[in-house]
């Protein structure tokens, strides 16, 4: 059965705390959603603010970007009480926006009719009918969002059902039942939808769930299983309060767990990429623990788990990570066993096999001991594969350093105008020659990094392509106060791949130097191949 995926990232998602899309951001996301295969893209509320009006205007000029898969949708409320739909500015804004699909919401809970609209139940029904009928007269497809439907059904079933009947009579193509407060559980959703559909067997229904009880994904899937043919949600579940139903969990669940057709399986492989893209534009830190698409969704740390995964991935993976564009990660820690280390050896192409003449076990044992000692001192290699690669090479005696530190010095000055200048001096031994360099930077770590590059560039031109993607600092033992150790994690890239390195010290500069030098050494070691 075909399920329409209705994405409201650009409208409902933009209401999440800390999210502020520009018009350009919205256009970029719309392009990505369309390419992915989303059925409907809700662009915003053209009659409510200048930004959304400009977005629809730009989309109209661009021919809706010549969307290949999606229907661009405009949002609004029903007409105002005591007025005419034909005179409502918001409804006219939809008609003028250039879209072919409208999504309007109306109240299905009499509590809201009384306190939010401050009108009568009868007038609310007229507002719903008039608004839907007006948009249908403009040859638009109309989706009616029955706001607070589930709360309304529990408190006054007859009236909630009447709002649905009125929208259908007005000509609504799809009735989307909204779990607006996000407090329902799956059994609530199932029961109410089952009964509602029984009253209107010929109508098409959808689900719009919020996540205030942590059940938005489960509620959406339950709604589909009860007969809903549309799912509304956002990428990464962003939205007001606790967020909306997360399409990044719903889509693969419907496709792979229940065999519904919503996004082509080929396109679902782009899901992780789409998730990261939206996070980047929204300036959000990706949630590593997100199901399916998170960095840790298929990460394995316990040795027993890794051993089983090596034999059969189904032992600890509910689907293949490749199906959603993700990948398996084997984590190295003080919990690591032989299977973790061997898996990493294979991943890093160390050339060590479990069948090696008895030496493999000794090498693995040596690496495990070093990892446990390092982790006891504050190191973590889960996101620092490059540093793990280097300590392994050193432990096995197969690493020759490209340079060694003689000394470094840092100076930070602040003038009377408040300008801060950081200057670093570094002495390195490179191929038996002493290199003495001085460089400035935006802070002491940047100055050190510039110095390091300046000293090495003529010997190793490959480092020109290396740049830093991320720099994170975390206190390891906060109970030591100002004498606490800090852990510095650096993510670097050369445009073709990225890698992580780590440093730990009571001194943040020293920890940063460890991570910086590891990053360069890893690049040089890989380039040497």
UniProtKB/TrEMBL annotation:
Keywords: Amino-acid biosynthesis, Branched-chain amino acid biosynthesis, Isoleucine biosynthesis, Transferase. Signal peptide: none annotated. Residues 3-269 form the Pyruvate carboxyltransferase domain. One of its GO terms (biological process) is isoleucine biosynthetic process. It comes from the Bacteria. It is an enzyme of class 2 (transferase). SMART domains: LeuA_dimer. InterPro entries: 2-isopropylmalate_synth_dimer (IPR013709), AIPM/Hcit_synth_CS (IPR002034), Aldolase_TIM (IPR013785), Citramal_synthase (IPR005675), LeuA/HCS_post-cat (IPR054691), LeuA_allosteric_dom_sf (IPR036230), PYR_CT (IPR000891). PANTHER family: (R)-CITRAMALATE SYNTHASE, ALPHA-IPM SYNTHASE/HOMOCITRATE SYNTHASE. It catalyses: pyruvate + acetyl-CoA + H2O = (3R)-citramalate + CoA + H(+). Belongs to the alpha-IPM synthase/homocitrate synthase family. It comes from Endomicrobium trichonymphae. NCBIfam families: citramal_synth (TIGR00977). GO terms for molecular function: (R)-citramalate synthase activity; 2-isopropylmalate synthase activity. Pfam families: HCS_D2, HMGL-like, LeuA_dimer. This is Citramalate synthase. Pathway: Amino-acid biosynthesis; L-isoleucine biosynthesis; 2-oxobutanoate from pyruvate: step 1/3.
